[in-house]
Amino acid sequence: MADRPITLAVIVGAHGVTGEVRLKLFGSGLDGVKEHKSFNDGALTLTSLRPQKDMGIARFAEVADRNAAEKARGTELTVPRAALPPLAEGEYYYADLIGLAVESETGEALGTVRNVENFGAGDVLDIARADGKTFMAPVAASEIAGERIVIDAAWAE
Q1: Would you tell me which of 39, 57, 94, 129 could form a disulfide with 44, CB atoms 3.0–4.6 Å apart?
Q2: Residue 45's CB: how many other CB atoms inside 10 A?
Q3: pTM beyond 0.70
Q4: How are strands ordered across the β-sheet holding 123-128?
Q5: How many Å apart are CA 71 and CA 53, to the nearest integer?
Q6: What is the CA radius of gyration of the chain?
Q7: Range with the largest mean pLDDT of 49-63, 74-88, 93-107
């Protein structure tokens, strides 16, 4: 888990003619990106970052002009999982939940976490059953037990 790359943002296009790029931000947004100077195993070095509406405008040492910025479109900005700040008790990173097994309170296998969403009322797991069908269920930190998540089986019906 510690070596897995975590995506903090993605380049969505060029900004101006000098090589700046527009970023779609994930997780903790601009603050999460600002904490790091190197991305993609050292391939990109952040030299400046500023907000623009709900996005970020960034400059990387390796992106010299608009053409290079356009070619970078779609590039995910990743850092190793180990580079993220440690978590307090009861906190978790969404990326750590994806792929975990989901079980009922009685130990019945219910599926695997495909994604985590938050529509405003709390975190919701997108779970895939073995037969390919999916369902969603809310999750609380108290339900995360090591390498598995335990939920009320009623959500799987």
Answers
A1: 39
A2: 14
A3: yes
A4: 134-138, 123-128, 109-118, 101-103, 148-150, 144-145
A5: 23
A6: 19
A7: 49-63
